[in-house]
Amino acid sequence: MDPKDSRFSTQISHLALDIGGTLIKVVYFSPNGDNCEDGSIVVGNGCSVVKGRLCFAKFETRKIDDCIEFIRFNILQHSGVQHPNGTARDKFSVKATGGGAFKFAELFKDKLGIVFDKEDEMHSLVCGVNFLLKTVPREAFTYLDGQKEFVQIDHNDLYPYLLVNIGSGVSMIKVDGDGKYERISGTSLGGGTFLGLGKLLTKCKSFDELLELSHQGNNRVIDMLVGDIYGGTDYSKIGLSSTAIASSFGKAISDGKELEEYQPEDVARSLLRMISNNIGQIAYLNALRFGLKRIFFGGFFIRGLEYTMDTISVAVHFWSRGEAKAMFLRHEGFLGALGAFTSYKDQSHSNDLKPHHHTMQRAVLKCSGDDNFRHTPVTGNLNDGEAIECSISLV
Ligand SMILES: Nc1ncnc2c1ncn2[C@@H]1O[C@H](COP(=O)(O)OP(=O)(O)O)[C@@H](O)[C@H]1O
Ligand SMILES: CC(C)(COP(=O)(O)O)[C@@H](O)C(=O)NCCC(=O)O
User: Fold this and answer.
1) Which of 22-31, 339-348, 368-377, 382-391 has the lowest mean pLDDT?
2) In its keyword annotation, does this UniProt entry include Transferase (predicted)?
């Protein structure tokens, strides 16, 4: 994203960052200009409702300066926040989560004069998913055999579930309620592994390029199938069809070929399949440990990609014999940032807050109605620049 894209120049009052190993996710509330002067409507008892949009953006962590410029140019400038000794700076509290909330706290302080209000990463992920499932219609869906189906969320029968967040690494969290969760497992073979190995093996330069390659590839060129080992037949006694992958990248042993002799497309496809399959299987095993039937997958590794979702779904379906269900989330990559954002509401009524500094007060986030997606097509996943219509109650 161009940090100086003026489309985003608007008065921002709430901002949350999730600074991960690979990507920085930004969620901010942009009040509509058509309310009263400060964007808020007073509704009685000193409570005001501010209508606006939740906006999303992401940056590569290695290009953190772009993110800093984005915040400086599009957010601070338009929020009356000055650096370094500006009087309006305390109006602006920035929620931050992910490892980078610790790693880059000084950098943000030095360059922008803003201090992070840190939120725990796992806690934020759980808050983000619960917020989405309870508030945003058509958020969760299944994807199997090319069919996408939105899942109706029953608020009284939401827990327990397993959250699998596929970022650079993978965290698996058993969620039992609001704020009730336990990180039960994880694996270091995640999105970072896919991108890192992909870059080394295919010489591609970006995640999008790697995905594009994988679209065109055929994993069977490199993966050793059950049929390759069993002379073209199934191993039906243990339930393995001849087309099942017996060994990811296994053909490279017997092919006698150098890396350059494989098509990068096929390598990318095998890699994507290997990582997705492995995560699906580990997720299922952890769901089994705790008797969980519902597994929600998030994190930017998924990127709404059909092949990835299909592979994960098939793995969960296959291993659980149809008992467990893999579900995906439209705001997959923004779970932590959204969770940190919703933590504004956890702040207690502070008696010592100065009048009018409403951005520091208790904020209750509501998404308005059933048709609250302004730009997002219901079949697609979230892209930069798309927004959720919502309102914030400040009490
Ligand atoms: N534009 C992108 N650039 C780099 N990686 C991306 C991109 N889009 C998706 N990804 C994938 O998403 C992963 C990061 O997911 P994310 O949930 O943001 O995790 P983290 O918090 O660790 O950065 C990357 O490792 C990569 O596999
Ligand atoms: C350390 C992390 C929580 C950081 O989160 P991320 O930036 O990858 O989203 C994650 O990478 C992780 O859970 N890694 C797996 C470590 C393990 O359980 O083996």
Assistant:
1) 368-377
2) yes
The tokens of 315 are what? 């793995």
Provide the pLDDT for residue 344: 82
Q: Which ligand is nearest to the CA of 197?
A: 1
Distance CA 251, CA 249 (A): 6
pLDDT, mean of residues 188-202: 98
Ligand nearest to the CA of 121: 2
CA of 86 from ligand 1 middle (Å) equals 35
Q: What is the best residue among 171, 282, 286 to mutate for testing ligand 2's pocket, by most ligand atoms within 8 Å of CB?
A: 171
**Structure confidence by residue, pLDDT tens digits, 210-225:** 999 999 999 999 999 9
Strands 94-97 and 14-19: parallel
At CA 168, angle to CA 326 and CA 177, rounded to 5?
45
What is the complex's ipTM, to 2 decimals? 0.99
Nearest ligand for residue 279 CA: 2
Phi, psi of 24 (to 5 degrees): -105, 125
294 forms beta bridges with 325
Residue 34: other Cβ atoms inside 10 A: 8
Question: Using CA atoms, how far apart are residues 264 and 383, in angstroms rounded to an integer?
Answer: 27
Give 307: exposed, middle or buried? Use CB within 10 Å, 0-12, 13-18, 19+. Answer: middle
Question: Does the beta carbon of 195 sit less than 6 angstroms from any atom of ligand 1?
Answer: yes
State the pLDDT at residue 342. 92
Among 23, 120, 129, 303, which is best to mutate for testing ligand 1, by the most ligand atoms less than 8 A from CB? 23
Average pLDDT over residues 193-201: 98
Mapped onto helix, strand or coil, the DSSP state of residue 137 is: coil
Q: Number of H helices and number of E strands within the chain?
A: 11, 17
Report how far residue 276's alpha carbon sits from residue 302's, in angstroms, rounded to the nearest whole number: 9
Residue 164 pLDDT level (bands cut at 50, 70, 90): very high
Residue 23 alpha carbon to ligand 1 centre in Å: 5
Buried b (16+ CB within 10 A) or exposed e, 188-197: ebbbbbbbeb
**Tokens 């079949």, residue?**
379
C-alpha 338 chain-centroid distance: 9
SS3 23: strand
Residue nearest to atom 7 of ligand 1 (CA): 207
